[in-house]
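Researcher:
Attend to token order:
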Amino acid sequence: MERVKPNRIHIIGPVGSGKSTLARNLSSSLNIPYYELDNIVWRRTEGGDVRNSVEDRDRILNNILASDKWIIEGVHHKWVMQSFEQAEMIMYLDTHIWKRNYRIFKRFAVQKLGFQKGNYKQSFEMLKKMYIWNYGHQQKERPEIFAALKPYQDKLLVLRDNSKLHKHI
């Protein structure tokens, strides 16, 4: 029996876990648009990032959720419960911390050197924040996320390695 491909996917995980890369790859292979939660929280401007109001943020998310197909990715979990409810598949990327630390530094270096464009300006202060968020995620956000996802166990896929995804989609 052929597996039905999901049309509404929510990808969550810590900084450097591979969410954006996975979302881009799935978007391309499944022909589904993807959205980064950071770009819903922040309005990117020439002068720097400006935080959207809660009302604007929620309106943008609701517009995405109203469509038939979407991939949403990000570390945010407290204000996106609707997307967990509506998702046909939820993926939590449980990548090893050493791999995330490496990816955080690699992203910093590649973007700082101008080889790749990012959503925000790379700085040593931001690099420091990324590592703090990465370690904090293990102790605080990860348990909160798994508690929030408890009602959705039937559509939750926990991946330590994205290369095994083909078995599930």
In short: The helical segments are 19-30, 38-41, 54-65, 81-86, 97-112, 124-148. DSSP finds six helices and seven strands in the chain. Strands lie at 8-12, 34-36, 42-45, 48-51, 70-74, 89-93, 156-159.
